[in-house]
Amino acid sequence: MESKIAELKAAAADSIKAAADLKELDNLRVKFLGKKGEVTNLLRGMSQLSAEERPKIGKIVNEARADIENLIAAKNSELKAKALQNKLASEKIDVTLAGRKFQRGHLHPLTLTLNRIKEIFIQMGYSIEEGPEVETDYYNFEALNLPKNHPARDTQDSFYITEEILLRTQTSPVQARTMQKHKDNAPIRMISPGRVYRRDDFDSSHSPAFTQVEGLVIDKGITFGSLIGTLDFFCKQMFGESTKIRLRPSFFPFVEPGVEVDVSCPICHGNGGGCKVCHDSGWLEILGAGEVHPKVLEMSGYDSSKVSGFAWGCGVERIAMIKYGIDDLRYFFENDMRFLNQF
Ligand code: PHE
To answer: Residue 4 above 90 pLDDT?
Structure first.
C-alpha cells in the first residue's frame, strides 16, 4: 500500500510538472483529487486494512494528497504568470513608431481662382449674383441685344432644350436678371460666376462646359475710364503689381464700344525665350468688355440718359491657366491627383 501511494505521488508530480496549460492542469486535479480520482480511490481501499495500519496509512495518504494539492497550486500560479507574460508580449505597442499622416483634401485650382476673383471684387463692394444654367432664349440672347437670327448668335453655338430654352452660353444673362431685380436706375456693382455651355470640341483650349465670371457696374457717371481702372486693378491683384493691360477694339452686341482685353504675360513678363503660355507674344487675351449698350439698359428698365455702366466677362479656366502656367484646359476636368496635388 505504501509503495502504491509513493508511485501515485511520483506519477502525479511528473504529470503536473509536464502540464502545458491551465486546462491540462485542471484535468490532472480531477484525475488525482476529484471525487472519483485516484487518491480518493486509495482512501476507499482503506476499509480492507487492519485497525493498526489504518491510521498510519491514512496519514500517508493525506500527506500525499496535501503534496499533490501544493504541487497543483504552485503549477497553477506558474502557468498563470506565463499566460500573462505571453499576453503582454503579444499586445506590445511600439510607442516609438512614426505616425501615419492623415490625407487631407484641398480646394480645386478652379475654386481657388474663383475665390480669389470674388475676394478682389468683394473688397471693392461688389455683390455676388447667380443665375440659372438652364436659361431662356430671352435672357441669354434677346435681352442682351441679340434678337432672333442675329448673326452674332453663331459665335456661341448653343445646346437648345426647346426652341425657347437652352443651356446658357455665357454668364451675361445674369446682367439682365440683376437689372430687372433692382429698382429702376438703382446702382449695381456685381459679379456673377457660374458654369456655361457651348457646342465646342474638348481640346487643350476648349470644353463644352466651362466657367465664366461676369462683371456689371451701373451708376450715374460711369465712364470707359471706370472700366479701364477696374480691370487694371483686377489684373494687378490677380497676376501681380507689374501686370499691364492692353485693349483692342472688338464687338459684342450688348456693349458699345466693345473691347477685348489682354494682360502682359505673368510667366515670361514679355521676355519670351520659348514661353509656353504666351508663345513669346508677351500678351494674353483674357476677357471681353465694354460700356453697357443703351438698348440693354432700356430693355431691363434703366434710363440710359440718367445712368451708364460697364460690363466684362471672362473664362475662369483661362485665368487659372495664365496664373499657374497651365498649358492644357483638360487638366481641370480630369481630376488626376498628380495634377491636383500641386495646388
Ligand atoms: N459674354 C461675353 C462672352 O462670353 C463676354 C462679355 C461679357 C463681353 C460682358 C462683354 C461684356 O464672350
So the answer is: no
